[in-house]
Amino acid sequence: MITQTKLAVFGDPIHQSLSPRIHIEFARQFALDIDYQKVLTPAGTLAEALSIFSSAGGMGANITAPLKQEAFALIPQLSPCARTAGTLNTLKWDPSTQQWFGENTDGQGFLQYLQKYTSIDIAPARVLLLGAGGAARALIDVLEKNVSQPLTVVNRDLEKAQDLKKYPRLELLSYVALNQQIHQTRFDIIINATSSSLHQQLPPLDNAWLKNSIVIDLAYAHGLSTPFMEWALSHHAKSVDDGLGMLVEQAALSFALWFDRMPDSKPVYQQLRSRE
Ligand code: ATR
């Protein structure tokens, strides 16, 4: 008997999510039958949504903005990677304990994106990371391990980021404090890990930072540039890219956790790019 595996992505907004398309392509590579739904889940309602999903036979899930840290707080069984990052993006149902197991594939997905689709060498780079939410935290951990220079993180609400002081080398700043340093330093790479592009907004970053920097917006705008990418280009960024590569790579790692098989991600990435 062929069984269908029930999967879903939870977030708000969720209509824009490419995860169902990506996972259906991965499943096709192994002739697996999956049902992958998008579940609109406002902040504060994830516990209820997950309980409904597991009761209906849900076996795996992706968690996206703004729920990554909410998910982390709900799930007791965590991988070491999710535990260190303090955030998660992937859940697998564990039938033996009847509980969800939480993993974070964002950080490794970001590294794989850099290796597979770019020539960027982050090891010696001076990196500025915008945001301190769920998406940013997975990156902070891999950047701390893979970049030799101290990482600078900027967030509007510094209260929410106080626990990042556990990273001794990390410099945590408000946008006002960062913008005051404009004549003293520059960044090779600027990563937008805020959800600003999802809301068609820009973070309050002085545009002079963008000149000659490699700019990566982790958001994806279905073939269009995100507002952040447009802004960076108009202020002479050296290059700009969106989050499609990381999205496909983190998805491949989630798929491998669910099915113990690593899909071939590059053709799926190329297919999505060519349909833009
Ligand atoms: P995600 O899972 O995408 O990280 P999140 O956990 O809700 O979503 O975090 C959203 C992040 O985007 C936060 O760092 C938030 O900054 P604050 O903590 O200061 O609110 C940031 N963010 C959202 N909109 C932003 C904007 N217009 N400008 C700057 N930062 C923004």
TrEMBL record:
The active site is at K68. Residues 243-273 form the SDH C-terminal domain. Pfam families: SDH_C, Shikimate_DH, Shikimate_dh_N. It comes from the Bacteria. It is an enzyme of class 1 (oxidoreductase). One of its GO terms (cellular component) is cytosol. Belongs to the shikimate dehydrogenase family. This is Shikimate dehydrogenase (NADP(+)).
